Amino acid sequence: MAKIKIQKKDIWIDMTPMSDVMTLLLCFFMLTSTFLTPEPVSVTAPNSVSELKIPEQDVLNILVTPEGKVYCGTENKNNMQAMLDAMTDKFGVQLNATQIKHFREDPMVGASMAQLPNYLSLETDKMTEAIQKLGLPLDSINGGKSEFQEWVTAARDVNPDIKLAIKCDSKTPYSAIKLLMSELQDMSENRFQLITNLDVKRLND
Question: Distance (Å, rounded) from C-alpha 72 to C-alpha 133?
Fold first, then answer.
């Protein structure tokens, strides 16, 4: 008895719709993603159950390391330039074009005004090392404001609607946070937010 031969057919799948969907998804994620500003020092924020989100614009980020070193900065580079102009005029500091360029590329301010010119004269890779050993002074100048307070004042003058957000490490001593808050309260800055990581486990309990 003769065998029946089954005709083989090639299966062809049109992948065009899938490619269109993947392209749309890629465009969606690219347009909606928020890129994080690099920090001069790696900090692991403590966990909390607060779901309140920090605004994405008009925020002066204040960073406190486990050693109590303080840095601050905002993502708006034009505002940072205006803050720098105000501070250099106040303290009589002269910066050249290269130093100003390095300042605009730096994510945060973290050097005293006396150290700032030398710090901004370093190569980029050496700046990354040096910034971890520096920090904004919290000591008052001749009984007046500290340099940290002067930077906050400059930020407020540039943008009166700017909000303050403090991010500290989970190992940062309470005394360092208390000192920073006292600095802000002394200049009537009583509204600020603390940046934390969402503790999903505690939130679900």
Answer: 15
The one-letter amino acid code at 97 reads A
**Averaged over 114-142, what is the pLDDT?**
85
Q: Quick one: three-class SS letters along the chain?
A: CCCCCCCCCCCCCCCHHHHHHHHHHHHHHHHHCCCCCCCCCCCCCCEECCCCCCCCCCEEEEEECCCCCEEEECCCHHHHHHHHHHHHHHHCCCCCHHHHHHHHHCCCECCCCCCHHHHHCCCHHHHHHHHCCCCCCCCECCCCCEHHHHHHHHHHHHCCCCEEEEEECCCCCHHHHHHHHHHHHHCCCCCCEECCEECHHHHHC
By the 10 Å C-beta count (0-12 exposed, 13-18 middle, 19+ buried), 144 is classed as exposed
How far out from the chain centre does Cα 110 lie? 12
pTM higher than the cut 0.85: no
Least confident of 91-95, 101-105, 197-201: 197-201
Q: What is the mean pLDDT of residues 128-147?
A: 83
14: left (phi over 0), alpha (psi -120 to 50) or beta: beta
In Å, how far are 127, 165, 177 from 82, measured between CA atoms? 22, 20, 27
